Amino acid sequence: MTFLYFAYGSNMLAERLAHRCPSASIIGPASAAGHRLTFEKAGADGSGKAMLEADASDEACVPGILFEISLSDLPSLDQAEGAGAGYDRIDSFPVIASGDGEVIMATTYVATSVNQGLKPYDWYLALVIAGARQHDLEEQHLKELRHTEYIIDDKPNRKARLVALRALQSSGHPDHHQLLGS
């Protein structure tokens, strides 16, 4: 048995998601209408993490990637995403498939609280940008990501940072700083 998962943040990078969910296979681009992407969900490390925020404006739409994942990987995805501890897992979240415009119900994670003023770490933002580039998401989205203010992680040996940098390196990005300014 499998489920469809809509990734809009760091899990868009296939190498990162594969580390968490080995069964993940790419379906393709999709989008969450009526939302905008912010980095105002507080991570355990105190930095801002990606979140979907409801937005009623006509142009509000967050691109992401749809994956098919084995149900056996759901517990590890829940743990990695902080289900019940900062994010709620939504199992019937409507996304629009790129190409045919079909509305598909997918699983995704929605932050339970907003912490305005947070910024992502440089390496985390690089994961999001690398994922968007990997799947050729629209240039406007990449431009907005590149203009996101970030902070430099003051703990270069932070485990999450090292894992992220390995995922970036395995996806062909040995220097994450190049993603931030490209």
Quick synopsis:
This protein is α+β, with helices and mostly antiparallel strands and 182 residues long.
Structure characteristics:
single chain; Hypothetical upf0131 protein ytfp; 7 strands; 182 residues; 6 helices
Task: Describe the protein's topology.
Layout: E1 2-7, H1 14-20, E2 25-33, E3 35-42, E4 48-54, E5 61-70, H2 74-81, E6 87-97, E7 103-111, H3 122-134, H4 139-146, H5 159-170, H6 176-181
Antiparallel strand pairs: 1-5, 2-5, 2-6, 3-4, 6-7
Helix pairs in contact: 3-4, 3-5
What does this structure look like?
The chain contains 6 helices and 7 strands. The protein has 182 residues and is an alpha+beta fold. It has a single domain (2-181), classed as Hypothetical upf0131 protein ytfp (Roll). A 5-stranded antiparallel sheet has the order 1-5-2-6-7. A two-stranded antiparallel ribbon has the order 3-4. A hairpin with a 5-residue loop joins strand 3 and strand 4. Helix 3 (122-134) packs parallel to helix 5 (159-170). The radius of gyration is 15 Å and the shape is globular.
Approximate helicity band: 25-40%
Given helix and strand content, the structural type is alpha+beta
Read across the widest sheet, the strand sequence of neighbours is 1-5-2-6-7
Shape: globular
CATH topology: Hypothetical upf0131 protein ytfp
**Based on the structure given, which CATH architecture is correct?**
Roll
- Name the average pLDDT: 95
**What is the straight-line distance between the termini?**
40 Å
What's the order of the H and E elements?
EHEEEEHEEHHHH
Uncertain segments are: none
Total domain count: 1
Count the beta strands.
Answer: 7
CATH class category: Alpha Beta
